[in-house]
């Protein structure tokens, strides 16, 4: 196809009942996999995601490698995503990517293509976490203070659409979480645009991108798209 189809993958889903053929399905359709792995350390991942998540994530990455994902010359792209453990901006991407490559290769024999550093977005669970600690306002100030105009051209909402489980179309993954769908001013609108409604992405050009405070997360520092 003339588009890059991406699966934003929660690695532990590979081990869920009924998902035994997921990796083979992704491979068959040459889907680009972008998987979240917030650290190469088991202690940090389990602290952020829960006990046992790191081991299940490593197992899933090994299975993806076995299927050819992240392997040079396979044409199957496996990218990883890092995000900080708290209310601060991620470090420079290039140096951290080198560290991920060396740690995962040396300790587990895992290979992957690219690492993307993502700022924690002030939405859903993370926003609730900050609110409980009375840190939401200071975190928003951090994001706004570090606004970087140079990030705007490469924002995911400029060149990517996110598709929900029900086919609804969103400007980005975070608007997907918040229910801000394309083609509607309502939140979680059942009548918003669906993949079955459009024949070409060109049909979405006239729809304005929906912005809110969380957008500062993608434009802070080195950017998060």
What secondary-structure arrangement, pairings included, does this model have?
Elements lengths: L5 E4 L12 H7 L3 E5 L5 H8 L3 H14 L11 E5 L10 H16 L6 E3 L6 H9 L3 H10 L10 H4 L2 E2 L5 E2 L2 H6 L37 H4 L6
Parallel strand pairs: 1-2, 2-3, 3-4
Antiparallel strand pairs: 5-6
How much of the sequence is in beta strands? Answer: 5-15%
Overall residue-averaged pLDDT value: 93
Counted beta strands: 6
- How does the helix and strand content classify structurally? alpha/beta
Shape: globular
Helix content: 25-40%
Sheet with the most strands? 4 strands, parallel
The rounded Rg comes to 18 Å
What's the helix-strand series?
Answer: EHEHHEHEHHHEEHH
Strand order of the largest sheet: 1-2-3-4
Total helix count? 9
Low-confidence stretches: none
Between the first and last Cα atoms, what is the distance in angstroms?
22 Å
Summarize it:
It contains 9 helices and 6 strands, in the order E-H-E-H-H-E-H-E-H-H-H-E-E-H-H. By secondary structure, it is of the alpha/beta class. A 4-stranded parallel beta sheet has the order 1-2-3-4. Strands 5-6 form a two-stranded antiparallel sheet.
Defining key terms:
4-stranded parallel β-sheet, 9 helices
Give an overview in words.
There is one protein chain. With 225 residues, the chain is of the alpha/beta class. Helix content is 35%, strand content 9%. The chain is built from nine helices and six strands, in the order βαβααβαβαααββαα. The chain has helices at 22-28, 42-49, 53-66, 93-108, 124-132, 136-145, 156-159, 173-178, 216-219, and strands at 6-9, 32-36, 78-82, 115-117, 162-163, 169-170. The strands form two sheets. The protein has a four-stranded parallel β-sheet. The longest helix has 16 residues, at 93-108. It is globular, with a radius of gyration of 18 Å.
């Amino acid at each position: 196809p003339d588009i890059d189809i991406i699966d934003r993958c929660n690695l532990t889903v590979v081990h869920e009942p009924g998902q035994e053929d997921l990796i083979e399905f992704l491979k068959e359709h040459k889907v680009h996999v972008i998987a979240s792995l917030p650290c190469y350390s088991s202690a940090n991942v389990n602290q952020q995601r829960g006990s046992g998540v790191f081991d299940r994530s490593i197992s899933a990455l090994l299975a993806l490698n076995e299927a050819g994902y992240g392997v040079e010359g396979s044409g199957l792209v496996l990218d990883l995503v890092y995000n900080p453990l708290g209310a601060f901006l991620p470090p420079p991407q290039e140096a951290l990517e080198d560290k991920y490559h060396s740690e995962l290769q040396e300790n587990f024999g895992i290979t992957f293509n690219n690492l993307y550093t993502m700022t924690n977005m002030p939405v859903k669970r993370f926003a609730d976490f900050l609110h409980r600690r009375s840190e939401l306002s200071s975190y928003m100030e951090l994001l706004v203070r570090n606004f970087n105009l140079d990030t705007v051209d490469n924002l995911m909402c400029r060149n990517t659409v996110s598709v929900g489980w029900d086919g609804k179309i969103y400007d980005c993954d975070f608007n997907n979480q918040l229910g801000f769908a394309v083609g509607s001013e309502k939140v979680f609108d059942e009548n918003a645009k669906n993949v079955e409604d459009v024949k070409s992405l060109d049909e979405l050009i006239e729809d304005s991108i929906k912005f809110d405070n969380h957008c500062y997360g993608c434009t802070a520092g080195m950017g998060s798209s």
